[in-house]
Specification:
Shape: elongated
Largest sheet: 6 strands, parallel
Helix content: 55-70%
Structural class: alpha/beta
């Protein structure tokens, strides 16, 4: 009995400790469970906040997408590629081609639109097409697209445009390039249409003048605003895509602005305002430039080398 008496208190003490241990474990499990649940809820909330909402919204007919062309949809500038095609068809001489090539080399190396170069290119193009029929240039433009532009479309941007089309929305190009060229590109890509610079014509013949001014910077925003009003669109539900800080007025109009292959100023602006960014370029700028517009023409080697040297000095 003494042995039993000695065992009983010990057994009771062990049971008490077990109960205490069990209760402590249960309490710890409850606390850890609540903590884990809280962490899961916080993680889920953060992921929900970080995740992009479904976009573009399927069936939203009051939404549309507006895409800049040069270096957003297509590598390089459309007007320069168009100039190459016209040179091939002997619309102008080697001297003008050298100027086109220099401007294109600069555009590709610097990655930004130089207003002086763009204006010079437009003036050159207007003087070249003066006296030619609109129908003639449209036909040639189709050929030039196949020769110089088709392989320069950014697949990533093309995919973004297709997403809007698949959602049942209209997709427009908005560019300073001639509206005829822009319309050809839009049709070839299956887009809705294009807003572009309008060259004056009388009886179907180019006069060498513009109607108004080039569709550049604020003019793009005004064109988008006018088209949205005509189409019954809600700009707050629309999207716009561009690579250039010159298009900040257009991007600021819409509820869904995207910076595509952005220049430095647009990248900073987009980050400050938490706009979406997409960059389909790879490697250093010098590596991604590729072959200048008129590579292979010995007369242009000096101009291209000068562009490279100037770019390096500025950076």
């Amino acid at each position: 009995m003494a042995a039993l008496g000695w065992l009983t208190p010990r057994r009771r003490s062990a049971t008490a400790r077990s109960v205490l241990a069990g209760e402590a474990a249960a309490e710890a499990a409850r606390k850890s469970s609540l903590q884990l649940e809280q962490e899961r809820e916080e993680t889920a909330a953060a992921e929900t906040e970080a995740a992009e909402p479904e976009f573009p919204v399927v069936g939203d007919v009051r939404a549309a997408a507006f895409f800049d062309l040069d270096n957003t949809v297509m590598q390089g500038a459309a007007i320069f590629h168009f100039g190459r095609g016209l040179y091939k068809r002997k619309f102008f001489q080697r001297r003008e081609l050298a100027r086109f090539a220099w401007q294109q080399a600069w555009f590709r190396l610097a990655g930004v639109e130089d207003p002086e170069h763009m204006q010079d290119a437009r003036d050159s193009a207007l003087s070249i097409v003066k006296g030619h029929r609109v129908s003639e240039l449209m036909s040639i433009g189709e050929e030039i697209y196949d020769e110089y532009m088709a392989d320069r479309i950014w697949p990533g941007t093309r995919g973004l445009a297709q997403a809007h089309l698949d959602a049942g929305q209209k997709v427009w190009l908005v560019t300073a390039a001639p509206v005829e060229t822009a319309t050809i590109i839009a049709r070839r890509l299956g887009l809705t249409g294009a807003l572009g610079t309008v060259a004056e014509s009388v009886d179907g013949v180019y006069t060498g003048k513009l109607v108004g001014e080039p569709l550049h910077g604020p003019a793009k925003a005004e064109a988008v605003r006018a088209l949205a009003a005509a189409e019954g669109l809600d700009l707050g539900r629309c999207a716009a895509y561009s690579d250039s800080h010159n298009d900040i007025p257009m991007l600021s109009l819409v509820g869904h602005p995207y910076a595509i292959n952005p220049d430095a100023k647009l990248r900073r602006h987009a980050k400050d305002r938490d706009w979406r960014l997409r960059d389909y370029r790879t490697g250093r700028k010098a590596a991604k430039v590729g072959i200048p517009a008129a590579a292979g023409l010995g007369a242009l080697a000096g101009g291209t080398a000068a562009a490279v040297a100037l770019h390096r000095r500025r950076h």
